[in-house]
Automatic annotation (TrEMBL), chains A, B:
Its EC number is 1.1.1.85. It comes from Streptomyces lavenduligriseus. The record marks 134, 185 as: Important for catalysis. This is 3-isopropylmalate dehydrogenase. Homodimer. Pathway: Amino-acid biosynthesis; L-leucine biosynthesis; L-leucine from 3-methyl-2-oxobutanoate: step 3/4. It is found in: Cytoplasm. The gene is leuB. It holds the Pfam family Iso_dh. Residues 5-340 form the Isopropylmalate dehydrogenase-like domain. Catalyzes the oxidation of 3-carboxy-2-hydroxy-4-methylpentanoate (3-isopropylmalate) to 3-carboxy-4-methyl-2-oxopentanoate. The product decarboxylates to 4-methyl-2 oxopentanoate. Belongs to the isocitrate and isopropylmalate dehydrogenases family. LeuB type 2 subfamily.
Amino acid sequence: SRSINLAVIPGDGIGQEVVAEGLKVLSAVLPQDVKLETKEYDFGAQRYHATGETLTDADLEQLKGHDAILLGAIGDPSVPSGVLERGFLLKLRFAFDHHVNLRPSKLLPGVATPLAGQPEIDFVVVREGTEGPYTGNGGTIRKGTAHEVATEVSVNTAYGVERVVRDAFERAQARPRKKLTLVHKNNVLTFAGHLWTNIFTKVAEEYPEVTTDYIHVDAATIYLVTDPGRFDVIVTDNLFGDIITDLAAAVSGGIGVAASGNINPSREFPSMFEPVHGSAPDIAGQGKADPTATVLSVALLLRHLGYESEADRIDTAVAADLTERAGKPARSTSEIGDALAVRVAG
Amino acid sequence: SRSINLAVIPGDGIGQEVVAEGLKVLSAVLPQDVKLETKEYDFGAQRYHATGETLTDADLEQLKGHDAILLGAIGDPSVPSGVLERGFLLKLRFAFDHHVNLRPSKLLPGVATPLAGQPEIDFVVVREGTEGPYTGNGGTIRKGTAHEVATEVSVNTAYGVERVVRDAFERAQARPRKKLTLVHKNNVLTFAGHLWTNIFTKVAEEYPEVTTDYIHVDAATIYLVTDPGRFDVIVTDNLFGDIITDLAAAVSGGIGVAASGNINPSREFPSMFEPVHGSAPDIAGQGKADPTATVLSVALLLRHLGYESEADRIDTAVAADLTERAGKPARSTSEIGDALAVRVAG
Ligand SMILES: CC(C)[C@H](C(=O)O)[C@@H](O)C(=O)O
Ligand SMILES: CC(C)[C@H](C(=O)O)[C@@H](O)C(=O)O
């Protein structure tokens, strides 16, 4: 019989609330014969304040035993900027080699968007997750003086770029439009830019059916608001991916519905699924948070584990729910979760 | 008697056409007693193909003699990506220490925007121009092999950050709303992030009337499409500034009306003014390019040289012209230039 052994990290702020709904929908969608085991972990601001720990080696050992990880949100204003981001979120991505950061964007009919004319939006960003300016390489000299110099080193390897580019080509190949866009800034960041562009061009030869193009990251932000329909699959570096996926979320229904997967395709380590939004401390504990992004992250999780039809059922339920929302009064976090649980079970 | 000794660099593609209109409007707006001298330079793709040169030391010596530089656009698909960008555009910014890259965004009534609901947009981005990931620091080992490693080093100095932050506070102080937002990614790029944040906080003490806030660059792209009215002055790093100003241009009337100044506030070297758009080879030579961004860059140039009322007249003329455009058939490059020249003269 099948089973899913899930690590659950509610985290900070609205993380608790949205994860509860994600689990509700997960339980509702799974067939009877699939045994769902969950173990909750208390990472985040509270544990940091209590113990000074963000993510220890022992924690990583424990997490390794799971099939996948569902995370709500990590981060709180009481913790200095960077401590939980570098000490937990990025540490986990690097430790488990989550090199494919998958972020789909789809604007459903009737869903609010800041863009005029309700354009068609249906693309997925494959963001590199373990290299680029995120490695923590760099340093500071003469800190706090008038002569301080601070550096950040973007590290890009053929190994790291090729595997994510290849993953993106596979995804593009599997989609109807079969189009892949490389987003970089190869006219200014020429060292990394050449590496990315050369590998992209080389791998493209193995995928003759995939149409390719290249756009500078600055121009990509223009297209995301003027012609988002031009994108099918985008592959890009860690930092550019961070920036354009927030914009992509904003134009395709908002950060409340943007899901993401931090994926290790080799399955050597568990992959981690989380909403793109943060912990939103200003609305935490009020039942106001939209759990949709977490529920969609559960769909990505299921697809990663091979539960295709269950993932599809969640996507369909969310699409129906989003389309029906327009013009109705706002529902609470658990009301939305309940509605989605009913739909996926039904 | 007063005089302006201007270096004119039409450059590639539509550069020639838009610069002609910029000069037309400049001549029309200047009072009789101001002597305008211009010298044209042939930088760009043609010269590169003919001589292999992009910008020599002798060129820089010549350019130094001018009061300011007006540039159309540099770049052509026939030149490998990066050659003209690094060899000309960035070389010039670095050589003349253009550390304040000024990019205003204002959405005028009736002007087309991809955003629904015609939001109020009126802010200016102060982008650092001589540091960050743009320095060309970095390198490649094992090029072209499966073991290639390419690095890009973002270099940030207290000297470089403080002067641009100070410039931004001055600009915020002079505006009615007196609000300054720092945009960075200090939770991930912690070395550079601490430097920027600390200096921003320190300088803020000297400007008690200026309201300050901080936003991560990814979140900034969200606000630029959902709530652009929250911005008054933004100060940010070279790369983040590159990205968000293209997005800012897109939402506030398009890249056809986005002006920029590469400014050396000390006036030790001439400052350079250029439209944010590129050379657009696909429409070059057809009289289709909108010269408005170049004309607005001329206004920034005049303001930099102390011709306040002339700069204001250009801004007013452009605002009137843009508002009148809505719903009318498109005009040619020179028709727009003519209309603006008539308005500023009148
Ligand atoms: C919180 C931060 C470390 C993270 C990132 O920059 O990757 C977030 O912005 C995201 O996009 O998941
Ligand atoms: C052409 C390129 C070097 C330049 C930059 O990245 O600064 C351009 O995008 C700009 O914004 O002026």
